[in-house]
Amino acid sequence: MKKAIIIFIAAVIMLSLCACAETGSTHTPDPATAEPANAATDAPVTTGAPSAPTDQPGGDSTDVPPDAPSEAPSEAPTAEPVKGSEGLVITDDGSRCIVTGIGTCTLSEIVIPSHVNGKPVELIDECAFQENKSITSVFIPGTVKKIDEDAFAGCTALASVTLSEGTETIGESAFYCCTALKSITIPQSVRWISGYAFRFCGLEEVTILGCSDIRSNAFAGCDFLKSFTVKNLGNETYQIMSNAFGDCRSLETLMLAPGLTEIGTWNFTDANNIKTVFLPRSLKKIGACSFLRSVIETVYYEGSESEWKAIEIKEPTFEPKVEYNSSFGN
Question: What residue spans define the domains of the chain?
């Protein structure tokens, strides 16, 4: 009997101890190994906007939040519209606009707008800024197809002209007698530099990126012109007409890219400072008196000796040393 009572008391004590252990203990899971409360459905957290899927350009509209940048277009975007200087006189010509004058604009640094009321500005009219003595710089956007005759003629303070790709024609006497203008780069899109366009300018350096035909007297009288380079990035044909460089006696470097077919008469007469001349194999004719009394000693020629001898040279005294098979720019 005593043995049964002892066994019963021991069992009660053991049960009590187990109950205390379960209610008093706690368990803290290891954060490195713990499973999230709902691992199957919880979305990952990101700190930036998600990228659009690479196999679906642009993605679905729900994939990108409103403030996230959109994916770059496959083609280069068009140039941003250029806001012009306020006060310029601009007329609506139906489908296009034309800059006709300085108007109430008092700025010395002029910016021609690319668009007005949604229409492209395609022309700077003849005599638009003629004889303006205050303008020191002008930016011309690519929407302007033509700079008409005498547009900036006599602007003697004009020291900086920025032409954009898209402009096609520089009209007659457009920058005539801009004596403060020291250098200019003419974009590849320009196909026509009219007569007297830069006559009597203060230019020292000219770079032409395209295949512009250079008309008579275009750069004549540019007494300070030292470097003239045609790069002709479009590899098309072009020509230099008569007296385009008349009286450019300071010229030292003449680099004419492939594509040139003819040098007209009276171009580099009395050019007594020319040190470097490159002529392309595309050249077919050199007019009379083109290099009269110039002191050129060496011409770097792209073609062979037989190709050189095939050129029609009207200047009998032009007999320089010729370095054949030369490379443009070297």
Answer: 80-177, 182-330
C-alpha 218/C-alpha 229 separation (Å) is: 15
The answer to whether 99 and 92 have CB atoms below 8 angstroms apart is: no
Please check whether residue 138 is in contact with residue 160, taking contact to mean a CB–CB distance below 8 angstroms.
Answer: yes
CA distance 311 to 290: 14
Secondary structure class of 250 (helix, strand, coil): coil
Q: Write the CA distances from 319 to 14, 88, 92, 158, 308, integer angstroms.
A: 125, 53, 56, 40, 11
Pick the CATH number of 182-330 from 3.40.190.10, 3.80.10.10, 3.30.70.100, 3.90.1720.10: 3.80.10.10
Q: How far apart are CA 239 and CA 280, in angstroms?
A: 12
Task: Please state the rounded mean pLDDT for residues 104-132.
Answer: 97
* Cα 309 to the center of its chain, rounded Å: 39
Rg, C-alpha atoms of the chain: 38
Can you tell me the distance from the alpha carbon of 265 to that of 292, in angstroms, rounded to the nearest whole number?
10
Architecture of the domain whose range is 80-177: Alpha-Beta Horseshoe (3.80)
Q: What is the pLDDT of residues 148-199, one digit of tens each?
A: 999 999 999 999 999 999 999 999 999 999 999 999 999 999 999 999 999 9
Task: State the pLDDT at residue 330.
Answer: 59
User: Which one, of 253, 257, 267, 259, lies nearest residue 314 by Cα?
Assistant: 267
Q: What is the number of other CB atoms lying within 10 angstroms of the CB of residue 262?
A: 19
The answer on pLDDT for 36 being more than 50 is no
Dihedral sign of CA atoms 265, 267, 270, 274 in order: negative
Q: Sign of the C-alpha dihedral, residues 209, 290, 196, 276?
A: positive
The whole-model pTM stands at 0.75
Mean pLDDT, the chain, whole residue set:
81
**How much is the pLDDT for 80?**
78
* Cβ contact 202:225 at 8 Å: no
